[in-house]
Structure formats: structure tokens, C-alpha cells
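Methods — Computational structure assignment.
A single polypeptide chain was analysed. Its primary sequence is given first, followed by the predicted tertiary structure written as C-alpha cells.
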Amino acid sequence: MADTKELSAEQKQRYNSVYCGICRQIRKRSSQIARLALSFDMAFLALLLMSLYEPEETGGDRACLLHPIKPRPWIDNPYIQYAADMNVALAYYNALDDWQDDRKVSSGLYARLVKKHYPPIARHYQRQCTAIVECISDLQDLEKSGCDNPDLPASCFGKLMAELMVYEEDLWSDSLRKLGESLGRFIYLADAAVDYAKDQQKNRYNPFIAMGKPEDQPLFRQYLEMEMGRCTHYYESLPLVQDKAILDNILYGGVWLQYSGKIAKKDGGNHDQRPL
């Protein structure tokens, strides 16, 4: 998620247009219900691939079911459509996982309603969807075994994100995979840090709990800084110009703002929500 307070008006509109474009394509390619799980992570994916490949774009503005009063600008291109499909695939398997783990009724219902949209995506993006299935399966095995090495489950999600970052095999595939792997590890470990107390209370698997470590946010942040350092190293190796200011905002500020905000919310607002 971007730190929108640090974006110019033009950059904010561009960012929102990408987000709305993905949402619009989810509705068009899947369903209205599938839009409920729209993720800002997919806006980053689309912006990164758009900046790298600079495709031709179409766009417009219109009201929608979620914003019926004021028309919202949107853009479209192959990478917007790709991000929309990956959002649906991830959301479907995340919902299945939540249903299997916690019997969360809303997740079970969402999975049933979105299930019919997954097979066409899986046929078109076999490599990416295979990575999603394998990641979820491997994570479930590690969680059941009570794995006390956070590197292993983090690597599972890293491998998933590595494959999602690669739209097609080309000159940039290796850097995109390494960027995605580090970003995926960061996302997994950040969620584990934020959910530490809740997982402990509900006796759910958390790699930091399995390590036998007491809750220690400064220590957790060290793990996250290391992963984001790797991520930005590979990010900076890519020849990005278009929308790089927005991408910089997300990686160097937005992810930390989101993490700090979640920690503050968990602790009742006792943490500074601006990135360090």
C-alpha cells in the first residue's frame, strides 16, 4: 500500500487509477463478489510490470457498484488484467485456507462463490497457480509440524511471490523472482509479527511463537529490514522509470507505514505510525 500523504495529486490519481483498473477487471473477468478481496499488493505488482514493460494503456472514468456517486478514473493494459487474475487466484486459496484452519464462515462462502472462476485462470497461468497450490500445501505441512524455523514458512511464501512477479520468462525474470521472493518473505514475517499476540491467544501456529521467542517487536523489525533490504536491492537493479516514484513510495515508505499502523492498532495506538 502506498503512503498516499507523500504522493502528489497526479501520483495519487495514477495509483488509484491502477487500483480501480484491477478492480474493474476482476468484475469483468470474474464477478462482483470476487472484488471483495481486492488487494493493494496487486496494485504494486501491476505498477512494477507496467514500469518495466511500458505497455500501451486504455482508460476512462465511470461510477461503479462500490462507488456509485462519483466516477472514478481507471486504466487498463495486459498487466492490469494479469494482476486481476492473480488477485482472484490468491484470494480463492487464501479463503480455502482460512476455512480449513478456522472454519471461518465468510471465507468458506467466498471460496464457494469464487471457485468457478479459478479453473480458467489456472489453465492460462499454470506456473503461477502451481506455485500458489504448492505454497499453501507446504505451509500447511510446516504449520502442522510446528516448525520452529521462520525461514522455512517465509521461504514458501517467498517462492509464491517470486512466480507471481514473473509475467513471462525474459531478461528480467531472475531479478523479478529475487525481488518477489524477498517481498513475499517480508509479507509473511510482517503478518506473523502483527499476529503474534492473537495467534498466541488462539493457540494458532506462528513461526515466532514456535521459536520460543517472547513478543519482541524490535527483533521482528530486524527480520523485516533484512528482507526489505534484499527486496530493494533487486528492485533497484531493474530499469524502471515510469511510475518509479510511486513504487519507491510503496517500498520505502508505504510497507512500513502499513506495518506500523497494524502494530499501533493492535496495541491501542501506542506506536508512531509513520515509517522510520
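Note: The longest helix spans residues 78-102.
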